[in-house]
Hints:
By secondary structure, this protein is α/β, with parallel strands linked by helices. It contains eleven helices and nine strands.
Amino acid sequence: MLSKTLCRIGGGVYDYAQHAFPDVVRIETTNACNACCTICPRRNIRRRITRMDDALYLRLIDECGRFGCREIHLHNFGEPLMDKQLEDRVSYAKGKGIKKVKIFSNGSLLNCDRAKGLIEAGLDEIKISIDGASKEEFERIRVPLQFETVMQNIKDLIAMRNTSHSRLKVHITCCSTSDKQETMRPLKNIVDGFSFSTIHNWGTGEQAKTANRLRKPCQRLWRNLTVLAGGEVSLCCLDYDGQCILGRVDENTSIREIWNCAAYRRVRQLHKDGRQLEIPLCANCTKSFL
């Protein structure tokens, strides 16, 4: 009963704050990745590995610019630097007036040429994943990345950012480490910040310890829209295999139409009613509990 009350109140607040166009649009320009991290479910992915079509990307950004979307994330379930045209795509989004363009990277491909290109394109923020408290722990988790390469890439990026007086923000994010202080130590006072989270279960129900925990409505459903590499709009960024598709952006269907469609309204209402069990991906997702 308490969970349902919390969901009803929280969902009501989200309804009130929701805009006709999503605040954040996450665009998966590629779902390819050069890593096989032990904490990532890539081994279970069944959808085709691909790069987003240029025409689709331009259509998405044009619409985001037209409706004043303030924040674009050019990543989802892949390494964005696997997209050789990423710099051009960042530049195009900035040219359309997107205030914040952000990527989430493992940092391994961020050599000096790519760093220079992203800075010149106007990238606003990059979050780089660093798991583990030592070289050995990092390389055990982030297979087959090399700790020294990633660290040097980050330091080179910061040096280039500072020399060019770019406003690019560089943050480190971590979800698996035996010692937070040791994770931070090599880059302390170098990057712009650190964030630590816990490993979640990707909505699979595996290792979910949710007994006696209160459910909450997921804010992502009212704020973030995720477009997969093929144009499909998935339930959320945790839906790595595109199991729950709410629509598809194409020549005849826009982001705005999907954002306000019956399928989206239904999942929001289920969360608002505390009926997440009726959505398989949300039923035992550890992000759905306080």
